[in-house]
Design goal:
about 290 residues; alpha+beta; Alpha-Beta Plaits; four-stranded antiparallel β-sheet; about 45% helix; Nucleotide-bd_a/b_plait_sf; RNA binding protein; RBD_domain_sf; RRM_dom
Length: about 290
Amino acid sequence: MAEVAPPPPPTAISDEEPKVQVDDDVEMAPAAEGVDQETTEITNNGEDKADSEEEQQGDKLPKDACETLYLQNLNEKVRIPVIQETLYSLFKPYRPLHPVIAHKNVRMRGQAFISFPDVESANEAKKDVSEFPLYGKAIQISFARGRSDSIVKKVEGDEKFDEHKAKRLEEKKLKRRNNPLRQKAQAKLKAEETGAPQQKKQRLQMPDEYLPPNNVLFIQNLPEGTTSDDLREVFEVHAGLVEIRTIPAKKDIAFVEFADENAATVAKDALHNFKIDGETKMKVTYARK
């Protein structure tokens, strides 16, 4: 009977973990490196997307955008022709249209309007030139509230221009009509006319006795048939008589002119209530100027 070889003795199991020899030149973080690259790609993609959205947002035109810009805070000491030429040169890269509108009146001082061939050019000019220091003052720029006449005429033709101009003038009239200060003044005037007619009448009918002194006398209540010769006989006794003027259509009044105020005053005081016909008292006052 053949002998059977006994099985080999079991290998002893060590509690120590197997040691792996690693070359010092080998990097051992491939997995971590892969994670970092993936994370970086995600981050970069997010930043690129945000930048793209910002660019799109920046390119989007404001709701109030139009082809004309309204400039404020311009140096008022600079002459209008100079400021117009300077502004045109400053905005030249954005293809501005002639002319640059600027006025020297008090209401428009330090302001100007400049138009461009399209809204995009105006928007770009607004973003780039806002706060530019011109003659020591930072330009403030906003879109004009309406399209300029030159833009409408250039883009839409004469027919549309006539409609635009008529509409603008009508809006201007309406704005003036609705001006609070104007309405207040009109209300005050209306109240004076309707609320106190008697007071107004009295103010207009100031008694002749209180008129300021001057060299012309106003004669009233003359008896019928009184002539300039009759008046001359009465007034020439006083020095300084120059002229007597009767009114053909109104025979009960006349004007008597003296050389100066003092001579007229002496005659007035002496002849007021004088009875030129022995019965009727004539009224002598200073004439209205």
